[in-house]
Amino acid sequence: MLRRLTPPKFRFSFLAMADFDDLYGEVGRKLRQARVTQGLSQERLAQQLGISRASVVNIEAGRQRAPLRLLWQLSEALGTDLSLLIPRREELTPSVKQIVLNPAMVKQIREAANNEAGAVKVLTRFASKLKAAIEIDSPVRKDHDQRKARRKG
Description:
This protein is an all-alpha fold. It has two domains: 14-91, lambda repressor-like DNA-binding domains (434 Repressor (Amino-terminal Domain), Orthogonal Bundle), CATH 1.10.260; 95-152, no CATH class. Helices cover 66% and strands 0% of the residues. It has eight helices and no strands. It has helices at residues 14-38, 42-49, 53-61, 68-77, 82-85, 103-112, 117-137, 139-152. The N and C termini lie far apart (81 Å).
């Protein structure tokens, strides 16, 4: 009797999908760096590839997940090896793991997720990223840091 072979089933959690956001963000950063180094505008690169400038903008921002064939074409147009545009695991920023949420926030996340482990992880990661972005980019935070530095100095 012949058995039909089926490919193994992979189950990606929402957390793993969130990690892909970091991956594509870093790919976009590297693409932008290579484009700027080559002195190409986003418009010119888009024309060479036959895609819209908006696509180039979104790929560089990590919002659009470029398929492998497009990444290959981008690397060719930028005169770089595709492997240099793909980040190594060490290059993906673990900064979110350093952010600590207060217990009240964690409690609210658990309640919102009905204590479902996968949803709690996704929401916790999202809240951590949001908190990190606010702490890094906040003008209030920057003013506070500058005043603190002046007091020490």
